[in-house]
Design brief:
By secondary structure, the chain is of the alpha/beta class. It has 2 domains: 118 residues, Aspartate Aminotransferase, domain 1; 242 residues, 3-Layer(aba) Sandwich (Aspartate Aminotransferase, domain 2). The protein has 13 helices and 17 strands. The strands form 4 sheets. The protein has a 7-stranded mixed beta sheet with strand order 4-12-11-10-7-5-6, sandwiched between helices. Strands 1-2-3-15 form a 4-stranded mixed beta sheet. Strand 16 and strand 17 form a beta hairpin. Helix 3 runs parallel beside helix 10, helix 11 runs parallel beside helix 13 and helix 12 packs across helix 13. It is globular and about 65 Å long.
Length: 394
Amino acid sequence: MEPVLPTYARQPLSFDRGEGVWLITADDERYLDFAGGIAVTVAGHGNPHLINALKDQADKLWHTSNLYRIEGQERLAKRLVAASFADTVFFTNSGGEAVEGALKMARRYHNANGAPERYRVVTFEGGFHGRTLATIAAAGQAKLIDGFGPVVEGFDHVPFGDMDALRSAIGPETAAIMCEPIQGEGGIRALGSDKLRELREVADEAGILLILDEVQTGMGRTGKLFAHEWAGIAPDILASAKGIGGGFPLGAVLATKRVGAAMTPGSHGSTYGGNPLAMAVGNAVLDIVLGEGFLDHVNKIANQARQGLEGLKDSHPDIIEDVRGQGLMMGIKLRREPAEMMNALREQNMLAVGAGDNVLRLLPPLVVSEEEMSKALSMLDQACSALESEETKK
């Protein structure tokens, strides 16, 4: 048995340091990082602003617990509230914890408002919400729940984007609808603005809550702070993580006042959630993401990427079936297993991430430049040509 529990199929790579959009091995071999820690390193590797914020806080105080006020936590919460739909924020250490907190909030809200029977949550098939017992039950995928039964009760799954099935699944025990605006692990499948607006309408008509899992789509990934903003709607509860810490473990549950009012002292907690180190980095990330011109840059590079990927689709129709995504959350639907393309890209010194539905995810740091995007598109072109050459030899 290996000392590190073998729960990952790791690639034969190890990195010593990073610079912006690049990861560097101990032998000084450079890789263009379009995996981004799976949509985490929004500010790039080795970002000086994040490093200085962490170092400054490390010299002062690491941990006190939430028994006391934490200045950085209060500052980050106020800034997130000012920049979003939310009135209140609870800090966690991960996306899974954030989704768990969101689910607990939904149940607690109905209980506090005289409807304790409302505890069930409707989700879309193909979703991914974390690795805890409740979040794998929320996703309902066999590959996640097999061997971990009995499955946590209280979740109803409907086909992705099927609004009629969604309406039919809502009953007197339903507390909320929960979904990702764009399914990440599920293959970069976007609900689209029309269906997000319809979700809001359905939730309001049924008197239930709308929970958005923006763990992967948030913090500027789609060109706005949160993806739901493109649809002009607001959820009742939102789970955030990944990019919010720029690589430091951090998550958050954002909620409206009416939902947050149900969470009283002792109803929820986290030993490390909102610790001074995480808050220092979280505030530094927000400095960058909310900085002048940052989201404009994301949208500019995203347009360049989209045009380039569509061109690659036309050039390599036997490899690329479709191009998906929004902002710098991009997906290439392949006519073969994503692992083959990942291996071909690795030969070009470029990293990407696989997903469901034969999709390759491209999730670069949001600081990626036009030149670096052009280089990535060239590497993708060469990888496609290499796969076509292999197919010809067969």
